[in-house]
Amino acid sequence: MEGELGWWGVVIAIIGGAIRVSTPFIFVSLGETITEKSGRINLGLEGTLVFGAMIGYAVAYLTGSAWIGLLVAGASGSVFGAFHGWICSFPRVNDIAVGIALMLFGTGLAFFFGKPYIAPVAPDLPAIALGGWSDIPQVRDALRVNVLFIIGIAAAIGLWWAFRRTRIGLIVRTVGDSADAARALGYNVNRVRWLSTAAGGVLAGIAGGYLSLYYPGSWNEGISSGQGLMAVALVIFARWNPIACFWAALLFGGAGALGPALQGAGVTGGYYLFNAAPYVLTLAIMILTQSKRRALTGAPGELSITR
Amino acid sequence: MAVVTEGGGTGAAPPEMAGRAIGDWIARRAESIAIPLGALIAGLLLFGVFLILNGKSPIQFYELMYQGGFGTSFSIQNTLTRAAPLLLAALCVALPARLGLVVIGGEGAIVLGGLGAAAIAPVISTWPGFLGIPIMGIAAALMGGLWIGAVGALRHYRGVNETIASLLMAYIAIALMNHFVEGPLRDPASLNKPSTEPIPDAFWVGEIPGMSVHWGLVVGIIACIVSWILIDRTTWGFSARVAGGNVRAAQIQGLPVGRLIIGFTALGGAFAGLAGMFEVAAVQGSANASLEAGYGYTGILIAFLARHNPLAIIPFGILLGGIEASNGLIQRRMDLPDATVLVLEGLLFVVILLSDTLYGRFKIFNPEKRGAG
Fold it and tell me: Which of A291-300, B74-83, B178-187, B238-247 has the highest mean pLDDT?
């Protein structure tokens, strides 16, 4: 079949792969946007993602329902996020370093409790076939879109609207732009940041659940390789705009799908190099879009990473 | 003012005042030892609670940890062998930290350092060991130094966040290593485990006389001492601390901030690269996927435990080396997964960061507050 489509097969595979691979990026980056808008940065989302993948898979296997697994994955993410937010509310504690610590801690806990769930098979999350109009199996396969991808789009639009139009959105933005101003207005800065980090953790936990329950669709210790961390770079690239996060996630997903798509087309050389494409892309984007001299437009004023 | 009382000037003072100044000095130093130690103990206790919740005995755990890490001369030598790369990896975090940079991609410098050492060895295979080994070391240090130095350069010239960039570059480095080990540099004879061509016998780094610990440990300790002298006793180190405190102030003072950033990151990367070289030339005998052993990540924890003080890295590096050395024994005897040590390390890391908030809160460590209170 590959022969008939030739290089078009690669393109279709990349589009389909981009949709599949981008979904966790959408959720993690939206979560990180909420956290960063409040003026904190959580590098620990990588650990949250891995733990969410483990517990989501384990619960789905034990209960037989992928949705309950996903729910528990999100709940576990909120615990990690709240933990990060709580530790960072003490004076002189560095949020970046705490993120690194939680990255190790979350990954460690996931591997510790996840050993028994590497072998069993848990139910998958459902997908919707949007490619029914086509006779070409590759197109049909590429357009089998998971429900979470669509929820992700809705969440991006919802968040964009919430930051612009709602009172809660305004409070989070105020806290992120100037803690002093927020205090003067009577808001509890630490509590807002604590809740924002917990909310960000929920989305990262859901992203982890997607990894183990849909694509790649099983739990193992190599399930996440930096998606949680790349999402932080992605948020900067998207200038803290949820809609831009969605497009950036699609781009990153496409880069992530490059390796498997080429492999599917029979290109075997440079397997590792093609799989490194997302990291190279992230780095290139960071180099091109950041500047030493001018402040980033749209950056929350309190954010340590852009100062 | 604190600098003045710490640095001296007590010689001309009356004896009782001199005595008090020494007491104050001891009190301040005691704080920087007591708080990390207290945090370490608190972390170990918390992990004990975690073990109890999982139906395991913390007493047995720590007994086995002592036995497997420090109990016998065999386990001590095992611990020291593991500590060697950890000391060098921790310096890759501690040196940039003096400039306020959080570099966490030392793993990348380690794998590329190992790859560089293994790649140069066949080219100079006919050379004697006393020339070949240093050249492998230079190749490894150069690879690691360029890799992490690039992170510093990106930070300085483009404002790219060094934490994210260094970790992304670690993933890229691991991909490069796998590509070369399984592709262009693969030894056709390595069937099950793709590796580069083995290094010549003459290039093996030997063991310290009387111990089965390779020379990497001595190099690691020397690197820590040299780094301490650089940071604490030279104008370079002083400038770096000024720049780490306030970049604008340092620039106004005319300090070469860019050169400091690139120099310190490159030096840290060079040390991490050396760690990779010792893994190749003293442990593995060739470059392969075993280079990616997580030393870079444990090094981050060690540097934070040591509060980025290179001398403190030595004991904490040996401690963590012991914890990792005992992992196998603990797994077998207590039927625990291999990630147990990862949970312990993560927990210690969280507790040590949380302890940062305690500095200056205890009156006994802060004489000026004692007077006021």
Answer: B74-83
HSE toward the beta carbon, residue B139, CA cutoff 13 A: 23
Lowest mean pLDDT: which of A167-171, A228-232, B229-233, B256-260?
A: A228-232
Single out the residue of A286, A289, A278, A106 nearest to residue A208, CA to CA. A106
Say yes or no to pLDDT of B81 above 80.
yes
Q: Which two tokens stand for residue B180?
A: 């070369």
CATH number at residue A102: 1.10.3470
B104/A100 touch (CB, cutoff 8 Å), yes or no: yes
- Which of A:267-296 have CB within 8 Å of B? 269-273, 275-276, 279-280, 282-283, 286-287, 290-293
Chain B environment of A107 (Cβ under 8 Å): 339, 342, 346
The whole domain housing A30 covers: 2-306
User: Are B172 and A280 an interchain contact pair (Cβ–Cβ within 8 Å)?
Assistant: yes
Q: How confident is the model at residue A124 (pLDDT cuts 50, 70, 90)?
A: confident
Judge whether residue B298 has pLDDT over 80: yes
A108 inside 8 A of chain B by CB:
yes
DSSP class of A146: E
- CA angle, B172 then A19 then A197, to 5°: 70
| Tokens matching residue B183 | 């592709």
Q: What is the rounded CA–CA span in Å between residue A49 and residue B27?
A: 43
- β-pair partners for B196: B186
User: Residue A1 above 60 pLDDT?
Assistant: no
* pLDDT on residue A30: 97
Residue numbers of A between 31 and 70 with CB closer than 8 Å to B: 43, 47
pLDDT of B207 > 80? The answer is yes
Q: How many CB atoms lie within 10 A of CB B67?
A: 15
Task: Indicate the residue of B167, B178, B353 with minimum beta-carbon distance to A272.
Answer: B178
Q: If one looks up domain B57-335 in CATH, what number appears?
A: 1.10.3470
- Which has more confidence, A267 or B52? B52
Q: Which residue of chain A is at minimal alpha-carbon distance from B298?
A: A104
Query: Residue A145 pairs with which residues in a beta bridge?
Result: A128
Q: Do B339 and A115 touch (CB under 8 A)?
A: yes
Contacts of B167 in chain A (CB under 8 A): 226, 229
- Please state the domain extents for chain B: 57-335
Distance of CA B265 to the CA centre of its chain: 13
Q: CA-to-CA distance for B305 and A10, rounded, in angstroms?
A: 49
> CA A133 from chain center: how many Å?
31
Q: What domain count does chain A have?
A: 1
Closest-CA residue of chain B to A268: B183
In this prediction, residue A295 carries a pLDDT of 63
Residue A193 scores a pLDDT above 70: yes
Chain B contact for A92 (CB, 8 A cutoff): yes
| Half-sphere exposure of residue B295: CA atoms within 13 angstroms, side-chain side | 36
3 state SS of B105 = coil
> Per-residue pLDDT for B235 more than 50?
yes
Q: Is the peptide bond before A216 cis (omega within 30 degrees of 0)?
A: yes
Contact A92 B356 (CB under 8 A): yes
Predicted confidence at residue B22, as pLDDT, reads 81
> What pTM did the predictor assign?
0.91
Q: Mean pLDDT, to the nearest integer, of A16-27?
A: 92
Mean pLDDT of chain A: 90
- B301: its two tokens: 């924890």
Measured between CA atoms, the residue of chain B closest to residue A228 is: B164
Place of tokens 């909420």: A34
What is the residue-wise DSSP string for A227-255?
HHHHHHHHHHHTTT-HHHHHHHHHHHHHH
Res. A294 pLDDT band, cuts 50 70 90:
low
